[in-house]
Amino acid sequence: MFVRRRRPTLAGEMLILQLAIVLVVLFAVGAISLAQSAATFDRVEGRRVTALAEQLAWNPLPRAQIDRPAPREVLAPLVHSALTQSGVTSVTVADVHGKIISSTNTTLLDSDLPLGDPGVAQAALGSTTRSQARRLERHPCR
Fold this sequence. Notes:
The chain is mainly α and 142 residues long. Helices cover 63% and strands 5% of the residues. The protein starts with 9 loop residues before the first helix and ends with a helix.
């Protein structure tokens, strides 16, 4: 006793093909939308964190106290107020040698600041013009 399989009709095959195409398009649109959202989030939050870092760097308190014997105690209120005002999860201040001198995460104190991929720093320096570099040299962080 052989059971004969019915072959789908042409209309059925076209319906399956159309459903497959719709699913592939939906998946592609969803993936692109997620990637765009992640890129937008990184760009917006990166600007916000950069603005916070610039605000802290140009504040006279860290610039004056960074080389003092106990900068941690003097910088703690500034670091915590920056944390509260900005809504970020952590604020860290390091000296010119990359040693963390103040942070809202106390486990990081007196350790080296991880800077990530060296190519990022190289790209940032490469985009600096000569006039910007001269301006930065005239305003050291000390």
